[in-house]
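User: Is it possible to get a 3D structure for a protein together with its bound compound? The compound here is alpha-L-arabinofuranose. I've pasted both below.
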Amino acid sequence: MVRFNDLEDLIKRGDLNRGEFIRAAAMLGVSMSAVGAVLNGGTDVADAAACKPSRTPAKVPKKANYKVGFAQSELTNPWRTAETDSMKTVFNQHKNRFSYTWNNASSSTNKQVSNVEDFIAQKVDFIVVTPLQQDPLRAATAKALAACIPVFEIDRQSSGRAGKDFVTFIGSDFVAQGAKVGHWMVANTKGPINYVELYGTTGATPAILRRQGFHRVIDKQSRFRLLAGQDGNFTLAGGKQVMQNFISKYGQKIDMVYAHNDDMAFGALQALKSAGITKKVYVGTIDGQKKMIQAVAAGTVSVCVQSDPRFGPITYQTINNYLAGKKIPAWVVVHDHTYTKQNAASLVNTGF
Ligand code: AHR
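Assistant: Yes, that's possible. Here is the predicted structure of the complex:
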């Protein structure tokens, strides 16, 4: 019969890796706190809290400097660049308190999982992650939890539960974003509307929830008819390609485009232009790039709902609150503007 002490000896000798150790300990029914204490030498921020890193511990151990690792999902559009820059800028302004490091999964879920595991191996004090896809990242978050490392999910969520499987979700209400585009279209269009939808990356929370929110509103109106929907991967090239396919099939029948982000909307506009389609096509999108807000002000795009990528300040603040022993809400909500022709010109500076 293997005992926990035996496992401890094996991992110390290097005969077990961290994953094997965690799995074997789980089979013996060993608590997360005991597993974390062995893996982290009892020095982590969350150890003093009997290893419940998804809740603010009653007493947070003081350290001169805390290591923060940010696992970015990809750098495929200006939104991701803005998010990455915002994190880097804010944490590097506080080098006396935080040692900040980040990695890029380059659109690979497997890479993002191993990037999170790297942070665990480096024994960082905090992991910040923006899960490329919600389900596969659940296991990586669970590993961090088992290693006693508090995880803050920003912008996108894994399929775990905030406040239980990770500290908090810091981000926008994606369902509301989709619903706002839907409401605008219902209120500002007349008669039958045939539309196409450019989905974000399959399996990503914003793609799932922006779709849900929009359809919750639009599907109640029988005058709206979905011609086709396809994954454009949140990129300009993807949006353009998908829109070209839609145009070759439906051409002038298309009255409206709902794109899950600005880059795909820009791609769709390029495709409409190259196809020589000059009729009025309503375009609804989400993100709030400066040039998109300008396009709304100019009337080229009908409505854009903001999804602010500047997560640095709010993430820094939330980690500081955790360190100050404050209770962190399961969802730190980021509030968004809705840009329309009426207000866009005056709000251009709120874009990125
Ligand atoms: O998760 C937020 C979405 O991801 C943004 O809308 C998009 O531009 C990004 O890639």
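DSSP finds 13 helices and twelve strands in the chain. The chain has three domains: 4-48, 66-171+312-335, 174-307.
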